[in-house]
Amino acid sequence: MKPISGTVLVVAALLTSPALAGAATGAVPLDVALGRYLLVTGLCWVLLTMAAEWLWSEPQPAVGAEPPPAAAPPDATATEPDPERPRPR
Q1: Long-range contacts from 54-61, C-beta under 8 angstroms, 24+ separation
Q2: How far apart are CA 46 and CA 54, in angstroms?
Q3: What is the per-residue DSSP string for the chain?
Q4: Which of 41, 66, 68, 78 has the CB geometry, 3.0–4.6 Å to 12, for a possible disulfide?
Q5: Are 41 and 48 spatial neighbours (Cβ–Cβ below 8 Å)?
Q6: What sign has the CA pseudo-torsion 34, 35, 41, 47?
Q7: 9-42 per-position pLDDT tens digit
Q8: Which residues does 42 contact at the CB level (< 8 Å), separation at least 6?
């Protein structure tokens, strides 16, 4: 995930909305609100990147693991019933 993506910026804005609203009304100094926003943006980027990696990444094969055996070709006689075998009733 890119550090300056829409998701990261929106989540950071939501988490710091009280400080940003306080800066808009003058209750919080602008440098404090922007500092909080930048700090939370970095934290959101790290956490969202980790979550995306853990939740949506493909599992890696184990080191030294053998590949799964190849599927056997279908046997032509496997679909025909065995005349020697009695049928279940």
Answers
A1: none
A2: 12
A3: --TT-HHHHHHHHHHTHHHHHHHHHTSS-HHHHHHHHHHHHHHHHHHHHHHHHHHHSPPPPPTTPPPPPPPPPPPTTSSSPPTTSPPP-
A4: 41
A5: no
A6: negative
A7: 999 999 999 999 999 999 999 999 999 999 999 9
A8: 3
**Among the listed residues 64, 12, 82, 75, the one whose alpha carbon sits nearest the alpha carbon of residue 41:** 12
pTM, entire model: 0.60
Q: pLDDT-based confidence at 85, cuts 50/70/90?
A: confident
pLDDT at position 58 is: 76
What phi-psi label fits residue 21: left (phi over 0), alpha (psi between -120 and 50 degrees) or beta?
A: alpha
Maximum alpha-carbon separation in the chain: 92
